[in-house]
Each structure stands twice: as C-alpha cells, then as structure tokens.
Design goal:
Largest interface: B-C, 32 and 31 residues
CATH topology of chain C: Arp2/3 complex 21 kDa subunit ARPC3
Radius of gyration of chain C: 16 Å
Helix content of chain C: over 70%
Strand content of chain C: under 5%
Number of domains of chain A: 2
CATH class of the largest domain in chain A: Alpha Beta
Strand content of chain A: 25-35%
Shape of chain A: globular
Number of helices of chain C: 6
Structural class of chain C: mainly alpha
Largest sheet of chain C: none
CATH architecture of the largest domain in chain A: Roll
Chains: A alpha+beta (347), B alpha+beta (119), C mainly alpha (167)
Oligomer: heterotrimer
Number of strands of chain A: 18
CATH class of chain C: Mainly Alpha
Largest sheet of chain A: 10 strands, mixed
Strand order of the largest sheet of chain A: 1-2-3-7-8-11-14-15-16-18
Amino acid sequence: MKKNLAAGVLIAALLMLNSCSADKAVDSTANVSGDKKSSGSVFAMDTYMTITAYGNNGKKGIEAAQKEITRLEKLWSVTDENSEIYAINHSSGAEVPVSAETEELLKFAIDMHGKTNGALDITLYPVLRAWGFTTGEYRVPDDGEISELLERKGADKITVDNGKVSVPEKTEIDLGAIAKGCAGDAAARALKEQGVTSALLDLGGNIQTIGDAKPDGTKWKVGIRDPFGDGSIGTLTVGECAVITSGGYERFFEQDGVIYKHILDPETGRPAESGLASVTIIGSEGRMCDALSTSLYVMGLDDACAYWRDNGDFDMILVTDDGGVYVTDGIAERFASNSEDVTVVER
Amino acid sequence: MRARTVYIVITAVILIGAAVWCAYVMKPKSGKTVVISQDGKVLYHIDLDSEKDKTIDVEYDGRKNIIEIKGGRIHMKSADCPDHICIDTGWLEDGKPIVCLPNRLVIEYEDGDIDGTAR
Amino acid sequence: MDTKKLTHLGLLTCLALIIFIVELRIPDIVPIPGVKLGLANIVTVYCVYNYRPGETAMMLYSRILLGALFSGNLMALWYSIAGGTLCFIGMEILKNFIREDNMWFLSIAGAVCHNIGQIAVAMLVLKSTSVIAYLPFLMISGCIAGLFTGLCTQMVCKRLKRTRKVS
C-alpha cells in the first residue's frame, strides 16, 4: 500500500516537473531538430562566458552553472576585497581560513609548480602588475625592479594546511592561469547535476564539453585560433573534454618596436620567449589543461614534448613562432589542419 | 507507343530526382563557417559571424580573384577569368559553392559548423 | 569512305561549328557553369542515327576542337571533350534500343551524360567533390535542352526525308 502511494507521488511529481520545464523552455530556447538548445552568457573573470546546452534541462543547468561561476569568481578574484585570495594576499603573512575549493585549487597549483619545474607559478602577480598586464597601463620595468620583485615569487612558499592558507608578506597569489579552467570544471559539474548530458562551455576561449556528442549524434567541433591572424589553424573533433589554448596574442603591448606578451617566464620575470606562438591542451580536466597551456608555453617546444612524454595524460597542439604546427599522436587523426606544415609528435 | 510512355516516365523520374536534389542543395545552411580552397588545398577557414568586412586576394597562375566579405556574407568581387561565372553566382547562400573553374577556386560552407573556438 | 560521305561529314561539322559559335553569342541566362542549350547537339544526334560511330566521332571531335580554337576558350576544351565523349558513348549505346521516332529521349540521355562528364572533370580539376552540388541543376537544364534539341533533330530528319523523296 505504502509502495503504491510512493510510486503515485513520484509519478505525479515527475509529471509536474515535466510540465514545468516545458512551460519554462518556451522563452529563449530554439527547437533544433527535436532537441532543445539553450544558451546563456555571463561576464566573469574578466571575460565573456557562453554556455550552450541541449535538452530539456538546458536552461536549469545553465542557470546553475552561471551561479557556480560567479560564486567561484567571488572566492578567487585578486581585486575583489571580499575574496579569499585578496584576504590571503593582504594578511601580512598571517593564516587565513579558506573554503575547500580554494584549498584544493591551491594544492593543485603547488603540485603543478613542482611538476613543471616552476614553469607554472601562481605567485607572479607582483611582476605581472609591474608590467601593467593587470591594469592595461603597460610599461617595461627595469632589470633591477624585476629581480627585486622576483624574490617575492615562489608557489612553494605557500603553506596550505587544514583549511588555512598563508603566504609570506609581499608574496601575492593570482589564480589567473588556472581559475577559468577550474571554474569550467565546476560549471560542468553543475550542469550535469541538473541532468544536462550535452553542452558546450566557452569560458572566454576555454572550451569545455559535456557529453561525447551533440544530440544529433555528431561530435563536437572545436576550432583552434590562428595565433598569427583572425582565422583558425584547424578544427578538432572531440568527445567530452576540455580544449584550452594559451598564446601571446591574447594580450600584449608594443614599446619602441618591441612586442611584450602577457605570459611571463617565472624564471626571468619577462615575457616568455620560448619560440612558441600558442599552446593548446586537450584533456579531461579543465584546470589541468589551463595550467599546462600556460606552463608548456613557457617551456618551449622541446621541453613541452618531453613533459608530454613523461606525463602524457593529455594531448596538445603547439604552434611555433615560424608557423610550424606540432600535434601529439593521440589527437593527430582528429585534427583537421589548415596548415601544410604539421608534424606529429610521437611518444 | 508504349516505348514512348516508358521514356516519358524515365525523364520525369530524372527530373523529379534532380529537383529534389536541387532543393536539398539549396536548403539554407545553418553553418557560418566558410572554406576557401584552391586546387584542393584549403586556403582559409572563415567564421562569417565574427569576421570583419574585408577582401581577400587569391592568385593562381598569374590571375587574381578578389573575394569580398561584407556584413557576414561572402562573394566573388572580381576575377581575371574569361567567363566571370563565379561573380554572377552572387553571394554564397546555400550548398551551391562559388566556383571559379579556370582559377580552381572553390568557396563553400563547411560541413557541420564549429561549436566553439579555443583561443 | 567515299567522297560523298566525307563531304557530307565535312558539311555537318561545319554546320555544327556554326551553330556552336552562334550559340556562344547568346548570353548566359543562369549563372551556373555549364548550363547552355547545346544546339550543336542537333547535328550529333542526327549523325548518331545516320552514320557509323567512327564517322560520328570524327565529326564530333573536329567540331569540339575547332569550336574551342575559334572561341579562344581552350580551358573549356577539357569539359567539352569529357562531356562530349560520355554523351557520344551513351547515345551510341542507346540508339540500338531507341527508335528514331523517340529521338528526343536519346538526346535527353545524351545531355545528362554530357553533364555528368562535365562535373567529373570539374571535380578532377578542382580536386574537390563539392561541385557535385551543381549536378542536379545541370541535369534539369540538360533534360530541357536535350528535349529541345532532340525534337529539333526529329523535325530536321522528317523534313530531310521529305526533301530526299522529292529530289
């Protein structure tokens, strides 16, 4: 008897849910070949983020994902005075209690700092600020200033312990290189929790997909931006994954005929001159791809390939300054290049 | 007399088949990515939605084609070929590619649109 | 081959060439490469029924070659040869089954073969299969043009027979 009642309630609830979502979906969803497609945009972490979701739960999922992204931005912003990162940076060396997400991300960043031999360093904020990349008031700091600021860096100086974080005075954390990737992971989780099985997130150029295919059965097609022009260097056909590109073209300035790009080499404190124009990482985890796209850009072609051979749980597409394209063999077949000059990197 | 009926039916079938095929080809494409290729090689992938108005010069064997992108549309602006069919084709609208046979140039929509661009 | 036949073929080639060059003066109606009436086909269809295949081929290729030379459009030569050959082969095979009073259908079949040949060459030249999108348009225009030229040929044949009887 009880069982029957429970089943009845469940069916009724399901019916109601159904009718609710059907009513709601009318406003801004397009019906594409029987599959609803919804999309929403949010401005966060200094960039436009667009989420496209398929299916009846799309709208709900997008709302949840947007909420999650704004929540994380409030935790990780360097400039927001209420953020946890701001609190850590301005605590004069004292311990600051942080949320579980922040603790996990910082641990990940410290781990990656070690793995990449320091090529990924989230404590370069003071140097970045000296160059003006944080504000847009660009200038070229002199060697003395840079070496002085470089003494403050070092992700290994961050202590994370039991929900509490501290950095030495004057050392400052900036999660710019990994926050977007991590937010993408969180947004993808939020979408999945709402029952979305097919969606594409474009977080300011970081592409993350949910589901191995679109509802029409076709795989996701992701273009890779040409670092030397407006077009793309090719298209990648992928299932569920993250595709994240870093390149000097994203932000740079010119002074006295020299171009200064925004990705700094933690070693020198100056824009990385590694011979690479852009690095695209394809992997399952957004934060990992985000971290690697920056750090492998700093390392350069040879070290990046060596790192891939040692750690290979991802794939990559490298574009060198002279226009050469290097693709790892795991995705070589799924990458349709526009360029003639493609080299497949083998293990 | 009977043979004639058969021939009329065959002709009608060819015509209807071709008409259906035409309708399929002329279906407006949802995609906005255009591929410009010459001699079988892809020269450009262009996302018409995000591309600024501009012209692209393509040379072949000393002859020149000028392709124009304007307001999210693309067409052949001028061509050094004798027939100028590519210019008469007008704006690229459906599955019919813009073709310049003498200069081996093809402008067409890409199969299946790109979902996003990593940048 | 006797002199009479040779003269006839020469005259037919000449006639086809004149029709071909006159047709060039008609501006393109549809901006689709390859769409045209193909009036010179009247002569080809006539030859298919009245001469041996080898003789028809002589007439056809002389006309194509000279036509390309006279019009100065040598690039179109390859399309004409491919289309013409396919059209010729198709018609020579089909003429064994199609009687003279259904000539219009032979002409249609030839025109469609011609279109397939043109597109095949275009695909080879462009190294791209996308031009196949033009085939259905060419096929429709081929059916109409083929019907027209076929009926023309039928009329010509009828009248020729009548004049022969008279003379």
